[in-house]
Structure prediction request, 243 residues.
Amino acid sequence: MKLNKLILTLFLSLGVMLSNAQTVDEVIDKYFKAIGGKEKLDAIKSMRMKMSMMAGPMEIPIEISIKKPNMMYTTVTVQGMNMRTGYDGKTGWSINPFQGDTVPHKMSEEEIREVQDQADINGPLYDYKAKGNTVELAGKEEMEGSDVYKLKIIKKSGDVEYYFLDAGNYYLLKSLSKKNFQGKEVESETIFSDYKELPGTGIIMAYGMESRAVGESEGQKMTITSIEPNLDMEDAMFLMPGK
Prediction:
């Protein structure tokens, strides 16, 4: 009798666990709904962000222009000099005056792979199968007092990134990336904070970020100071100068 009761209890417990279990696609769907929905993301065709990055005691202004499907132009200003990078969907280039550059140089394949990720406004979870990415639900754990879903993203390039989504509101709290760069595996993490609506879009996004190498206590703090969505941007601004 007691054995039958124990078996029944186990089956009931298993049923509750299965009913509460979520698939990876269900978690991803809730993530997109939490930040405003895919339709509203689709409506954003371009954006220009102004950011402030703290590198030690130095405040560095950054301006990033992104246009779908995958074009990006960035200006980083340090001590009156501008480091510029661009990507037109095929060719990546940079002009770095801190290395004595006066003419643009093509990016390496590794650098292009990095900028391709940054130029994707919708992120690696959006239509991940069509992008050639694989996403796995790597479990549920606790992070700084919050329950989080841990998603493992294996990108088409072979790079691996983990997303930690708040199990309550499904906002992205942290990303952890593992990439091979110049023959070495590099691990870095980014903490996301200060979520608010991007005016006029209905999209919720993080205005605060802190990136650092895994194992280090300090990193680079970045704050978005302004965002302008859906600006008219000519494709020519992303082309390599002189091309």
Remarks:
- The longest helix spans residues 2-20.
- Residues 8-20 have pLDDT under 50 and may be disordered.
